[in-house]
Amino acid sequence: SRGHKINVKVPNDAKAIAAYNRGKNHFYAKRGQLNMSCADCHYHYAGNKIRADILSPAYGQPSGFPVYRNKWAGMGTLHRRYVGCNKQVRAKPYKAQSDEYKALEYFHTYMSNGLELNGPSQRK
Fold this sequence. Notes:
Elements: H1 14-28, H2 38-44, E1 49-50, E2 53-54, E3 67-69, E4 74-76, H3 78-88, H4 99-110, E5 121-123
Parallel strand pairs: 3-5
Antiparallel strand pairs: 1-2, 3-4
Helix pairs in contact: 1-4
């Protein structure tokens, strides 16, 4: 798939629209002990440093998965990263492949429409 463009569609279908809206709500909803949303880090503060890391923008993130992360010493999915993000804001994570993360991935990937897939990739 490398080099193909992301082209996620939201058809005029009640289930698809509901999944997209659940994902969008998840992206913008505050959660966890730190009361943060995905948008806080990956939209409002993208490009800023948090500890020794630079926060990446949400736009384009799905294009590089699956990813080899040094921290994991192996490959991982976008859902595995969602679990890690939830833990970092001290929220109880959902299980990988849960309906909640599938909806988030749907919205998250839709935001990256037009970008080329470039995974698998490598990250810190």
